[in-house]
Amino acid sequence: MKISIKQISKFLLGFALLFIACETEETLEITSPEAVFELQQPSISNINLNPEIPDNPAFTIVWTDELSGGGSSYTVEISKDPLAFENPMTLGTSSSDRFSMTVGEFNEALIGADVPAFEPFAVFMRISTGSLISNVVSFSVSSYAETPPVITSPDNTFEVVLSDVAPSDAALTVEWNDPDFGENTTVEVTYALEFGKAGDNFAAPFLIEPAENPTATSMTVSHEQLNEAALSVGLTAENAAALDVRVKASIALTGGDMVRLSESLTITVTPYDVTLPPILYVVGAGAVDAGWGWDSPVELTLSGSKYGGNINLQNNGGSDNNFRFFTDASLEWSSPSQNFPYYSDRNYTIDSNFENANDGDSNFAFVGTTGLYYLEIDVENRTITLGDARTGPNCDYDQLSLVGAGVPDAGWGWTTPVVINCTGNGVYTGAVTFQNNGGADNNFRFFTDRSLEWGSPSFNYPHYENAGYIIDSNFINANDGDSNFAFIGTSGDYLLTINDTAKTITLEPIACEFDELSLVGAGVPDAGWAWDTPVVIPCYGDGVYSGDVYLQNNNGADNNFRFFSDRSLEWSSPSFNYPYYVGEGYTIDSNFVDAMDGDNNFAFIGVTGTYNLTIDTMAKTITLIEVAVPNCDLDQLWLVGAGVPDAGWGWDTPVALPCTGNGTYSGDVTFGNDAFRFFTDRTLEWGSPSYNYPYYEGEGYTIDSDFTNAMDGDSNFYFNGTPGTYLLTIDTVNKTITLE
To answer: Which string of DSSP letters, residue by residue, matches 630-679?
Structure first.
């Protein structure tokens, strides 16, 4: 065996080193870390508090305590300044090593500490127990507003008498503060004013939104706007009454608007009357057919927003050419009246043929050329004009009047003559009730000018017979000395038509002019502005259309509609708006007004609900009778949420589920695979009471298997079936929720 010198050297060197190492004695000292009281750094640094989930956790903090010996009570403190914990705010206490707060609790604490809403803000936390204080951790927090706006001006002593003289002038300015917001807020807050009759608790508030700058903290309302609000909520024209006003603050959030309402302010308002009388009466020497008396005032009838009629005016050199307008002939001189300043003060453009008479009463004075004119007063455009006399559209007269016992609505008198109007091309037509009482007295005749009464030109049976007219067989010559018409048919309602061009007089029994009328518009939510489901009221005979209709008043936002005669034509169908019926002389239920929306649709201003709507074309009335919805706590339920795509998470088009009686709500609903819930009062929007899945589950309902708990923080309903349209029924008596 060969061992090299090099190997031996290595061995000896290693042995020596080992010997030396063993000779050196070292001591190894093991130490423990110092005990600490430490708040752990949180895993999140930004907390955005969501008002839609107030019960969800906002944060959880955890700490280590190796100093107090256990069993301690800990105080959680917060400050807006990491160096200024001299007077910290206490969030809460804990007997364990952790602490949590919900979104709502933390938000309330922050607002209480004057942290501005919707504005990222740094807050600092620490833990204390006895004399021990932890380290400080920080969060960037964005809270949400809780405090409502506060009205600062005016106060409850404010009074105003409204006037239509200058309707656009300012009547009321409301100013307010919104204390939860700072200068760096990340959301836009928009404001509007709500009005309600004092004591009604804003049951059906009237909303006025600013025309510009909706984020301003003041708003001015004109005489016209405030008058509309006052009348809409039930105040009486020309009477001072208390009106409540409050500020509505809205913030657009993903799940819908967050709305805060200020405390109400009560002011005193005297509204003016906007009701247009159906006729203006002209009385005065300048209107020669009237004179200064009430035997034969000249009538200007209302059509839409225009009064018009032919009038003989005289200018006899200024000796007596004056007149004025009156609104109620039955009151004669006690009637409200309108002189020249009445119109000039309201900025009417007045025809140059008229001047202020300056006669002590400031009547109108006619300064033109004596003659027959057509006088028109346009209330909407504020004009008074004179033009050539009109004889109707291609007729010799505007209308013919029927007087006689054979027309029982008229009789042999001039209080209520029955009128058939010229409809063009020489044709007069209208609905007339005729009677045949066995020949005792079933006769009548036609007159051309009811203002002249018995002095009017008139037409009897021979007048038409000798002119070659073909006369309906239900009429004969009465041979009563005046050769009047005699009606020998069956008593009832008829459509009478005189065609001067074709020389015919015809009668048609009246059921109705149309089989049905269709209602379309947002004020009829079962229809809306579409043709999928127009609401129909059928003809029941005798010119009467009637049916139950669900009408809504959503605070004026969009409560209008109109009538259509042929739904198969959809938008091409003939239709009838508010001025149409006014012009036809209808008495219209006070729950309807002219929407003044460009199309002059009907606007429903009553209380949302189901009504029996009747249009009587013979009596010329439109009436509403509220229908009691049987055995339900509510008129309807409202579905809102992404699971109901026609509604979504908003309040523009919530889906209604109406009460159908006996505690049952039922209707067609289109569902998608997402969440939704039920609400009771759409006017309150997100402030409405609502029902989620656990509510019905807790009440013992058997719920259709296509619905589950969304488990989304609000425990909404979740539709997990096949998307589509279903008949949804909630039976509160048998406690079932079913889909078909």
So the answer is: TT-SSSEEEEEBTTSTTTBSSSSSPEEEEEEETTEEEEEEEE-SSEEEEE
